[in-house]
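Q: Here's a chain of 101 amino acids. Please give me its 3D structure as tokens.
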Amino acid sequence: MPDKIKTEVLGQLSEGCPKELEGREDSWAWLCAHFQAPDYVNKAQVNKGNRKKKTLLHHSDSRPFSYRMDARRRGGSKFPEIDVFGDVYVRPENELADPFM
């Protein structure tokens, strides 16, 4: 994490407990310690790197795949799995464009 952001975050954490956690300062202290722990910071950096390596992004909202498959079958698709794949995946940096296929 860049020093500028780290300083900003530490400043926000030291400002005090948010209203939602008033009366539960022990929870706030635990939360701050959790997000600053070296194990957590390491894991977050690894996950960030892994997300950058993805070649396709998943965009299907909350609608179950089974509903999408059924709709494709009713529409006469011979290969609903392929059609659904094209509906829900896009390339990185192109999230607002048409689906993958």
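Q: Can you summarize the key feature?
A: Residues 57-90 form one domain.
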